[in-house]
Give the backbone structure.
Amino acid sequence: MNEVAERTRAYLGLGGNLGDPATAMASALRMLDAHEAVTVATVSSLYRTPPWGKTDQPDFLNAVAAVDTTLPPRALLELCLETERALKRVRIERWGPRVIDMDILLFGRERIAEEGLQVPHPRMGERAFVLAPLSEIAPDVDVDGGTAMERLAGVEKAGIERLPGGGDWWRRD
Ligand code: X6L
Ligand code: MG
Ligand code: MG
């Protein structure tokens, strides 16, 4: 009885561009870390990034977090969505401004194609706002058959700014 649950290293993308996204992202990481089945292992610096997709909106703050979890992917997704809701994310328009967005980028080496759950995140290998923070904490992790660092070298990075202060920003009281 009582099997030891397997732990998986997952990478989460965090972003926001409404209100105080740094505070919302910090709260989100603390809420995840407080869950018995999730440990926040490493967090990147915060990055100020120009909006992608829908460009007539404020700059984003983005970061990536490595988490270790015994949850299956679907449960981790539900926890992320629940955390967004707890932080009062309101979904008004697709790709529009938001206080907090948390996406599963990678879940170990698993490949998942289900309703609402595509892992690896389908376009992460094209987005500097994901690859810059990911390369900071996991330069060698596999993204589309290359490393995060290699993928970052091949994308447009204009306007992306790493903020000072390192990866402890989410712990500050
Ligand atoms: C054509 C059409 C080309 C759409 C690109 C790109 C759509 C990215 C959505 C696209 C297209 C997205 C963030 C963001 C969004 C973020 C920054 C998305 C979803 N989320 N920009 N735009 N950071 N900097 O977290 O990623 S909306
Ligand atoms: Mg997103
Ligand atoms: Mg999302």
Remarks:
- The longest helix spans residues 21-34.
- The longest strand covers residues 60-69.
